[in-house]
Amino acid sequence: MRAVVQRVQRGSVTVNDVVVGKIGRGLVVLLGVGQGDTTDDARYLADKISQLRIFDDEQGKLNLSIQDVGGSVLAISQFTLFGDCRKGRRPSYIEAAAPGFAKELYESFVQRLVCNGLSTATGIFQEHMIVEIFNDGPVTLLLDSRKHF
C-alpha cells in the first residue's frame, strides 16, 4: 500500500460539481492499494500517518502529529500510485489491486483513521474526482507499507 501524505492548510474533493469531502488544517492522503496488500498494510499506514510528527510546535520544529494539533484527514483513493513507468510511455497498472479488493482495503484504512480519533473525509471510490490541495510548507511524504522494516 502506498500513500502520498501532504500537510495542508485545507483540501477538498469534488465529484460531478459537488463537494463530497472537505477539510481545514490537516493532511491530504492519496492512497494506492497494490496486489498482495492486506488489512495489516492498511492498519500500519493509518497508524503511521496518525502519529507522524510533521506539524510545527511552539519553536517551529516538526514535533507534533495530526492528533496533537486536532487536524483532519482527507483520504483519496488513487490506483495510479501503482503505475509503472519504466517501459514505454504508457504506465502499466498491473501491480494495482483489483477494484473490489482495493475498495475494501481503502475503507479499512479510513476506518482505522477514524478509530484513531481523526476527523476523516473521503472522495468517492472509482469516481473521477477534482482534488484541491493547499499544501502547507510544502510538506509531502511518500509512504509504502512494504518498506517499513
Explain what you see.
By secondary structure, the protein is an alpha/beta fold. It has one domain (2-147): 3-Layer(bba) Sandwich (D-tyrosyl-trna(Tyr) Deacylase, Chain: A). Helix content is 23%, strand content 38%. It has helices at 39-51, 66-69, 99-115, and strands at residues 2-15, 18-23, 26-32, 55-56, 62-64, 72-77, 119-122, 130-144. A hairpin with a 2-residue loop joins strand 1 (2-15) and strand 2 (18-23). The longest helix has 17 residues, at 99-115. The two termini are 14 Å apart. The model has no long low-confidence stretch (mean pLDDT 97).
Q: CATH homologous superfamily name?
A: D-tyrosyl-tRNA(Tyr) deacylase
* Largest sheet: number of strands, sense, barrel closure: 6 strands, mixed
Task: Label the structural class.
Answer: alpha/beta
Q: End-to-end distance, in Å? A: 14 Å
* CA gyration radius, whole angstroms: 15 Å
Q: Tell me the name of the CATH class.
A: Alpha Beta
In the CATH scheme, what's the topology name? Answer: D-tyrosyl-trna(Tyr) Deacylase, Chain: A
Q: Indicate the overall shape.
A: globular
Report the uncertain regions.
Answer: none
